[in-house]
Design a protein that fits this description.
This is Metal-dependent hydrolase. This protein is an all-alpha fold and 318 residues long. Helix content is 60%, strand content 3%. The radius of gyration is 20 Å and the shape is globular. The chain binds fe (ii) ion (2 copies).
Length: 318
């Protein structure tokens, strides 16, 4: 753990940790397989709101996130053996399965971005230094708290996206839309699993906050820097293009606008994690989830239905 024992004792007194109530949590979260067959020519570099810089954040996120997902998978697998509650164990298997498929399909998407001059290989090299050579070597308790922190941010993004469906509707690129909406749905579906696992196995508040700030630095500053440079690495002429700079304000609003921006309008949700008694389900997304399950997965009209292959629910082992 990060803190010396006496300091930790004082913290625990000031910030008592409640064991999470696991009853009533969604069991039976399916692991869904899809085949999107991405085509490079169809990828819209201005997918989000027709803003190139704003879309660059999500392109960079798509590359870096696969490494975050590997960390989540490795950490969840390690800690699953210490979980006694059969439902939480089953839910952890669902988390591992969903993240494994996210990572696989985002890699397919990232590969499809390469012929379109996205700096995928360079960003993969950078991500390997950060994740494979640094984060994955951290002690397991810190990785557990980083897993909970990463999953908090993906839950925030998912809730934002579910409340702002319009951001997906400014492009003809149906597969990018399907990819992000599927990911959004599942991040919200499994948003409490990493947190519950952390609370059951550790519950240490300062360590949880350390994981939060590492996730914030990675997804905010790290991916943010990737997004900042991406349009120029992809197309150096952007630096001289008047149209590109005219769009910059719109990209800023998409990401940081206090009213409607991804980060700007989610600040309250992001920093709510600092509450000692925070729980992901304090932000109720059940109605949104039901709405999007119907919209995305309906066997006839679902947006994801043309790409759906099969689904599987891990067994409950008691
Ligand atoms: Fe994911
Ligand atoms: Fe996730």
């Amino acid at each position: 753990m990060l803190l010396a024992k006496p300091v930790k004792k004082v913290f625990t007194k000031i910030f008592p940790q409640a064991m999470p109530d696991l009853t009533g949590r969604l069991a039976n979260i399916p692991i869904r397989h899809f085949n999107f067959k991405f085509e490079s020519k169809d990828i819209d570099a201005k997918f989000f709101m027709q803003k190139e810089w704003g879309t660059a954040y999500f392109a960079a996120l798509s590359i870096f996130l696969t490494y975050g997902e590997e960390l989540v998978i490795e950490t969840a697998r390690y800690h699953r053996d210490f979980i006694k509650d059969p439902i939480l164990k089953q839910r952890l298997t669902s988390l591992i399965g969903q993240e494994a498929i996210h990572s696989k399909i985002h890699e397919e998407y990232n590969d499809a971005m390469i012929p379109r001059n996205f700096p995928v290989q360079f960003y993969r090299f950078l991500a390997e230094q950060v994740f494979n050579h640094t984060f994955l070597k951290f002690p397991q308790p810190l990785k557990l708290s980083m897993m909970a922190g990463i999953e908090h941010f993906t839950a925030v993004f998912a809730q934002y996206a579910m409340n702002h469906e319009d951001i997906f509707n400014h492009s003809l690129d149906e597969k990018t839309r399907a990819l992000w909406m599927w990911h959004m749905l599942e991040e919200s579906e499994h948003k409490d699993i990493a947190y519950d696992t952390y609370q059951v196995l550790s519950g240490d508040y300062p360590l949880r906050i350390a994981g939060f700030f590492i996730a914030l630095a990675t997804l905010g500053l790290g991916v943010g820097a990737g997004a900042l440079f991406l349009p120029f690495l992809r197309r150096p002429k952007n630096a001289l293009s008047l149209d590109f700079w005219k769009e910059a304000k719109g990209s800023w609003d998409l990401l940081f606008g206090l009213k409607e921006g991804v980060f700007g309008s989610s600040l309250g949700h992001i920093f709510d994690y600092l509450r000692t008694d925070f729980h992901p389900n304090d932000h109720d997304t059940n109605a949104l989830l039901e709405h999007y399950k119907k919209e995305l997965l309906d066997p006839v009209t679902g947006t994801l239905t043309p790409f759906f292959v099969k689904e599987f629910t891990p067994a409950l082992r008691v």
